[in-house]
From TrEMBL:
Task performed by this protein: Catalyzes the oxidation of glucose 6-phosphate to 6-phosphogluconolactone.
Keyword Ligase belongs to the record: no
Binding positions for substrate per the UniProt entry: 180, 184, 218, 237, 342, 347
Pathway(s): Carbohydrate degradation; pentose phosphate pathway; D-ribulose 5-phosphate from D-glucose 6-phosphate (oxidative stage): step 1/3
Name this polypeptide is given: Glucose-6-phosphate 1-dehydrogenase
Species whose genome carries this gene: Bacillus methanolicus (strain MGA3 / ATCC 53907)
Domain Glucose-6-phosphate dehydrogenase C-terminal as annotated: residue spans: 192-489
Length: 496
């Protein structure tokens, strides 16, 4: 499958004229190309609109070009892109698509390796997979892999149905379900911080950790995605996948080896240990919010119900906060708090690990209490780690003062870390599925969140909208922690 150590493949992008392809996929493939990580490859873009291959190549060029590119590189790169105008629901044109694929396979010596990247609305996933099989596109000499964007189903039932459909054409180890959070540098770093440092792992349990907080907040509202978001909401859009994946990485046991199967099996155990919620408990553990109008950076912004393609009476949540309990030996009694939402005060994804207080305070600070030790993992936009300690305040007194040990990824590498999509695409081409979600993880996550959506969908939230745009969510989200004697560490005060 590999020659000269470099992977080779034909990449078929379904939805090649869409936003994801333009903003993420073409630039990622280009970066891999300029870094010499791809040698022999070709790309077929598939979408309905009639475009010539030349027009398509121009569109690819426009999406990648920066000022310091060499024109020869760019021209060689785009010459490997071909366009096939095709409605994925139309059975008749898969044969022509296969002919083009065979031809390129021969011309570029691609060894029969094929990657099918479905950058399209999820309702087409099953149909495409079935056609790929029926019309012979998956009948290859080399490897065949299916890359699927989120959302993978709408709930457990629809996810099972979709999985059945795609499994007719691809085996589980040929399916790469993208959760782009798993491609983020600092999300991948969670494992390394935990398992490569003698100082953290011994403390990583309910004896020393008071609580863990995972926040993923956005400043942007729903923008043009009202139609999709009305059917999804923050629980399905963020919690079922990204938030639960981060929790699994934080809570899992050390794998016996760093292989895909071992890591996934430890993550699955965490998801199995999540305390399931009964319908009557949902609102004790989870809080939903919807933004009203407000001001962001001095500018007035509309409420969710005023956004395009949103119901004026919408019951859709744009914010979720929750308390997860992981009922196993390591985590019994330690709350994992998660929160995510749109139109919040800051764009920030951060994890705060709050350690328990020491048994006795010998020192004092101005406010007479010692700050707890915190380990903060900054996922985005800044990437880094901060350890909050107490140290002696300079001077005569034995007074303690908080200090921070900072590591900033950008400063250390002197360059931006590669985009998540670039890393994930490269993993897929090399056949490394570690940072993609296995079906078992998808199913367990849906079965957990389904309980919450069932309750929320059947009871209209009378308080909506219940948080102002530009804030950190509804008051009930703060009360969720106050009940336990904690509070959300303000993400804006924790920057690297
Ligand atoms: P988009 O901009 O709406 O693009 C959809 C693409 O599908 C277009 O190329 C469209 O081209 C093509 N298409 C639609 N119906 C078709 C049909 N019947 N046959 C063939 N092609 C068809 O969507 P997107 O934002 O790129 O998102 C694609 C997927 O990625 C979705 O599952 C989304 O949830 C996921 N995703 C996107 C982002 C993002 O940043 N955009 C992030 C995470 C996940 P034609 O109209 O020419 O057919």
């Amino acid at each position: 499958m590999k020659q000269n150590g470099k992977p080779t493949a034909l990449i078929m992008i379904f939805g090649a004229t869409g936003d994801l392809a333009k903003r993420k996929l073409f630039p990622s493939i280009y970066n891999l190309y300029t870094k010499g990580k791809l040698e022999r490859f070709a790309v077929i873009g598939v979408a309905r609109r009639p475009l010539s291959t030349k027009d398509f190549q121009t569109a690819v060029k426009n999406s990648i070009q920066t000022s310091n590119d060499s024109p020869a590189d760019v021209n060689d790169f785009i010459s490997r892109f071909y366009y096939h105008s095709h409605d994925v629901t139309d059975s008749s044109s898969y044969t022509a698509l296969n002919q083009l694929a065979e031809e390129l396979d021969g011309n570029y010596s691609l060894e029969g390796n094929r990657i099918f990247y479905l950058a399209m609305a999820p309702e087409f996933f099953g149909t495409i997979a079935e056609h790929l099989k029926k019309d012979g596109l998956t009948n290859v000499r080399g490897f065949k892999r299916l890359v699927i964007e989120k959302p993978f189903g709408h709930d457990l039932e629809s996810a099972i149905a979709l999985n059945k459909q795609i499994r007719t054409a691809f085996s589980e180890n040929e399916i790469y379900r993208i959760d782009h959070y798993l491609g983020k540098e600092m999300v991948q770093n969670i494992e390394v911080i935990r398992f490569a440092n003698a100082i953290f792992e011994p403390l990583w349990n309910n004896r020393y950790i008071a609580n863990i907080q995972v926040t993923s907040s956005e400043i942007l509202g729903v923008e043009e995605r009202g139609r999709y978001y009305e059917k999804s909401g923050a629980l399905r859009d963020m919690v079922q996948n990204h938030m639960l994946q981060m929790v699994a990485l934080l809570a899992m046991e050390p794998p016996i080896r760093l292989t895909t199967d071992e890591i996934r099996s430890e993550k699955v155990k965490v998801l199995r240990a999540l305390r399931p919620l009964k319908a009557e408990e949902v609102n004790d553990y989870f809080v939903r919010g919807q933004y009203g109008s407000g001001k962001i950076n001095g500018e007035k912004v509309p409420g969710y119900r005023e956004e395009p393609m949103v119901d004026k009476e919408s019951n859709t949540e744009t914010f979720v906060a929750g308390k997860l309990m992981i009922d196993n030996f390591r985590w019994a009694g330690v709350p994992f708090y998660i929160r995510t939402g749109k139109r919040m005060k800051a764009k920030s994804t951060k994890i705060v690990i709050q350690f328990k207080d020491i048994p006795m305070n010998l020192y004092y600070q101005t406010d007479q209490t010692l700050n707890p030790n915190l380990l903060v993992i900054h996922i985005q936009p800044e990437e880094g780690i901060t350890l909050h300690l107490n140290a002696k305040k300079a001077g005569q007194n034995m007074e303690a003062t908080p200090v921070k040990l900072n590591f900033s990824n950008k400063g250390a590498d002197g360059m931006n870390t590669p985009e998540a999509y670039e890393k994930l695409l490269y993993d897929c081409i090399r056949g490394d599925a570690t940072n993609f979600t296995h079906w078992d993880e998808v199913a367990l996550s849906w079965s957990f969140t389904d309980k919450i959506s069932e309750v929320w969908e059947n009871t209209k939230e009378a308080s909506f909208p219940n948080y102002q745009a530009g804030t950190m969510g509804p008051k009930a989200a703060d009360e969720l922690l106050e009940k336990d004697g904690f509070f959300w560490w303000p993400v804006t005060d924790l920057d690297v």
